[in-house]
Amino acid sequence: MANATLAAGLTPSIRKRLASMFYESFLLLGVLSVAFVLPHLLIGMILKVAVPGPLLWLHIFIVLLLYFGWLWKRNGQTLAMQTWKIRLVSAHGEPLTRRQVLQRYVLAWPSLLVCGIGIFWALVDRDQQFLHDRLAGTRLVKVN
């Protein structure tokens, strides 16, 4: 896909992207229940120890990296993105590299957690892309 074909008309609306993110948050409850809560409950019950807070956060970070990284690299879509017909591609419309996947993931954390500044960025961005997409060289596009 040439850059010229990635015009704003192929960019999903902000409303649609936010709906996808909202739906994704519910799906992540299941992912984190299985890959985070269950192991730590078992560790606590069997070994009678609690994992220190910083390690818990690191575990969440890694679990979510594996979830998003695998799905974005595989076909550019999570289940929520498939439902809302959104795909993550490079700024030039090509499949993502591992580096772009990692950059987007790491940059999305402050983009979302610092008062959502990276989301609000889409209101002023020339292509209506989120800040973490702009910085990582990625973009969200509509899927037919």
Description:
- This protein is mostly helical and 144 residues long.
- The protein has one domain (11-142).
- The chain has six helices and two strands, in the order H-H-H-E-H-H-H-E.
- Strands 1-2 form a two-stranded antiparallel ribbon.
- Helix 1 (14-47) crosses helix 2.
- The two termini are 14 Å apart.
Per-chain topology:
Layout: H1 14-47, H2 53-75, H3 79-83, E1 86-90, H4 98-113, H5 117-120, H6 131-136, E2 138-142
Antiparallel strand pairs: 1-2
Cα distance spanning the termini: 14 Å
Going across the major beta sheet, what is the strand order?
Answer: 1-2
Mean pLDDT: 90
Strand content: 5-15%
Number of DSSP strand runs: 2
Radius of gyration over C-alpha positions, nearest whole angstrom: 17 Å
- The general outline is elongated
Oligomer: single chain
Number of domains: 1
Largest sheet: 2 strands, antiparallel
Number of helices: 6
Classify the secondary structure makeup into a structural class: mainly alpha
Task: Considering the chains and any ligands shown, give keywords for the structure.
144 residues; mainly alpha; 7% strand
